[in-house]
Amino acid sequence: MARLKLDIPALFGSLFAFLALWWLAAWWGNDPSVLPSPAEVWRIFHRELASGELQHHFVATLLRVLVAFCLAMGIGCVLGIAMGANARINRWLSTWVMLLQNIPALVVIVLCYLWIGLNEVAAIAAVALNKTAMVAVSLREGMQALDPKVREMAQVFGMKPLARLRFVILPQLWPYIAASIRNGLAIIWKIVLVVEFLGRSNGIGFQLHLYFQLFETAYVIAYALSFVSFMLLLEVTLIRGIEAYATRWRGAADTSEKRA
After folding, report:
1. What pLDDT score does 2 carry?
2. Is the pTM here over 0.90, yes or no?
3. Distances (CA, A) of 174 to 111, 146, 212
4. How far is the CA of 102 from the CAs of 92, 106, 178, 255, in angstroms?
5. How is domain 57-247 classified at the CATH fold level?
6. Which residues are CB-contacts of 230 (< 8 A; sequence separation ≥ 6)?
7. Domain limits, the chain
8. How far is residue 29's CA from residue 36's CA, in Å, rounded to a whole number?
9. pLDDT of 95-112, one tens digit each?
């Protein structure tokens, strides 16, 4: 089984270089209203954390990200597998998926707010719609790239549809699913911030809108980095673990070739 490979020195070295460049730019500019120093942002972060404001808005954004992500992945996977497995379904739905994929996210958000209202349903729907098409396209390509010999073998052995899906289709689709998970999380949380910026009363995006109006650059950076840090932590732990699991068969195949 593939193991999670993480270069800890490189990771911390990159973070240290980022902080050093940030501090140097802040010192050179010498204008906290434009670019505050890391120390000033950390003081604001600690202050917001102590008051409970940061946790309140962070959790609101995180819940929206999780719900929208689950909806987009669930619907997108079903559509993608159906389109890849059935040429007629693909012909009917490909235009819809292409249309949805090319509509700007901002347009979808505004239309959902106009049609549904300024509520959570509209916010979640707008985010999920923007990502569903991307997942569907990725899974459709994965279905079309499946090894036909493996599919024929499953038919010869008379495997039932559910067993074929579990033991033949999904293992080959895992790399595409893992890629959709990584891209989905990276895109969805950014769209959630736009949704909150435009029409919610809480969340990281709402706070960015508030402090943008007040020209408080340090607060904007503090709130933005809180979620960026969380996503980075998610990337180096959960997402890389999923990728390692998804591509574990490659290591087994390489081992078999070496033995042969």
Report:
1. 44
2. no
3. 34, 11, 41
4. 17, 11, 23, 43
5. MetI-like fold (1.10.3720)
6. 58, 62
7. 57-247
8. 9
9. 888 888 888 888 999 999
